[in-house]
Amino acid sequence: MKVKTILVSQPKPKVENSPYFELEQKQKVKIDFVPFIHVEGESSKEIRLQKIDLNDYSAIILTSRNAVDHFFRIADEMRYKVPDSLKYFCQSEAVAYYLQKYVVYRKRKIYVGKRTFQEMAPLIKKHKTEQFLLPASDKLKPIVPETLDTLGVNWKQAVFYKTVVSDLSHLENVFYDILVFFSPSGIKSLFENFPKFQQNDTRIAVFGNTTVKAAKEAGLEINIHAPTPETPSMTMALQKYIKEVNKK
Length: 248
Prior knowledge:
By secondary structure, this protein is α/β, with parallel strands linked by helices. It folds into 2 domains: 5-36 and 166-246, Rossmann fold (3-Layer(aba) Sandwich); 40-163, Rossmann fold, CATH 3.40.50.10090. The protein has helices spanning 19-27, 44-49, 65-77, 93-98, 117-125, 143-151, 184-193, 209-217, 234-246; strands spanning 5-8, 30-33, 37-41, 59-62, 87-90, 109-112, 131-137, 154-165, 178-181, 203-207, 222-226. β7 (131-137), α6 and β8 form a beta-alpha-beta unit. The chain is elongated and about 65 Å long. The termini are close together.
C-alpha cells in the first residue's frame, strides 16, 4: 500500500530546514507531529522529600537540556543562589551550549563529553573529590548510575522531572499510513491512550533497539527500523521505504 500520511510521535521541528519537511515535499506525503509523551517538572517540595539539599553539592552532572532547565527551575524555587564555583559536567556540546541560557559560559567551570555518558566518565573520574548531583528524569538509562558506581565517586541521583503520557484522544478516529516512534515511552503512550489499538494496515517505524524491543513486546509488526548502516537517520529510513512502496 502506498504511503500518503505519516504521524511522528515528537514535537514539530523548530528549524526550517528539517529533513522531515524536505521528505514531505520530495515524496509528496503529509507529515503530522504529535508528541506522545511530555515532561513535567517535580516541585521543590518533592525534591526535598528526596532529601536533596543543593548546598551539599559542588558539581552537577547534566545529561540533557531538560536536566538543565529543571535544575535551574528548582534552584530558583528553593531560592538557592547557584555559586560561581559550581562545576558542570555536560554529556554533550549541545547540553553545554544550552547551559548558556542560565550562566555566563566563560566564567564557569564546564566540562564537556563527546556524546555518550561513558565518554564523559574520564572527565568525572578526574574530579573524584567533588560531591556530584545528577538531576534526572524518572526514565534514566541504567548505564548512567552503573558508570558512576564503577567510577567510585560520591554522587546522588534526584528525580527533577518525569516523562508523562500525553492525552491523544483527539487522534481516536484519525488514521495514518505510518506511525513513527523513538522510545519505549511512545509505544506505552499509544496503548495507554488506545488499549484496543489494532495495527491492521498501519506501518510502524521505530528508532533504536530499546524501541524495537518495546514494539515487539506490544505485539506490533515493525516495518521500518533505524538506525542502520544504510539508513542512519529516521528520515532516511522513511524515504527509502516510501520510495519502494510508492513506485509500485
